[in-house]
Specification:
About 75% of the residues lie in helices and about 5% in strands. The mean pLDDT is about 85. The chain has helices at about 5-15, 15-25, 30-35, 45-55, 75-145; strands at about 60, 70. It is mostly helical. The chain has five helices and two strands; from the N terminus they run ααααββα.
């Protein structure tokens, strides 16, 4: 696909009304009137959208008596998908690198959390031991005072 054709496909897809028309045509052929129904725009405006889609090769218009059905031609969409797939490798590799980085950060965070818990536990043990030593010391002082008649 030439870049001009790719550009015209992207330009046609840039408009939400045209994307909605294509979405409707996925389910099968439709008349211009049927395609215009959900939009609050004039028939000439719908016709202009259809001409853009037709020039981009995204739709084909037929003629059956007085009915001019439109149908989806997905070939340009395949070309767009192929073009985008070329960049998929870049994004996949970028996301893989991000996953690796996040795993490393999580390992570090878990290790840091374990160290904090360990430090907190040690502080609690030291604090309890200190309280216990103070309690014993107070009892020893009280025994001495009682023995020597102070109190």
């Amino acid at each position: 696909m030439t870049s001009d054709r790719l550009s015209s496909t992207f330009a046609a897809l840039a408009d939400p009304t045209r994307r909605a028309i294509l979405a409707r045509l996925v389910s099968g052929e439709a008349s211009v009137t049927d395609l215009a129904e959900p939009f609050d725009i004039s028939m000439p405006a719908v016709s202009k959208h259809l001409k853009v889609l037709e020039r981009a090769g995204l739709i084909a218009r037929g003629r059956e008596a007085q009915w001019r059905p439109c149908r989806l031609d997905a070939n340009p969409l395949k070309d767009v998908a192929d073009w985008v797939a070329h960049y998929r490798r870049f994004w996949t590799e970028s996301f893989d690198r991000l996953d690796d980085y996040l795993r490393e950060v999580q390992k570090g965070a878990k290790s840091e959390a374990r160290n904090l818990v360990r430090e907190d536990a040690q502080k609690n043990v030291q604090s309890e031991a200190h309280k216990h030593v103070q309690k014993i010391a107070r009892k020893g002082v009280q025994k001495k005072e009682t023995k020597h008649g102070r109190k």
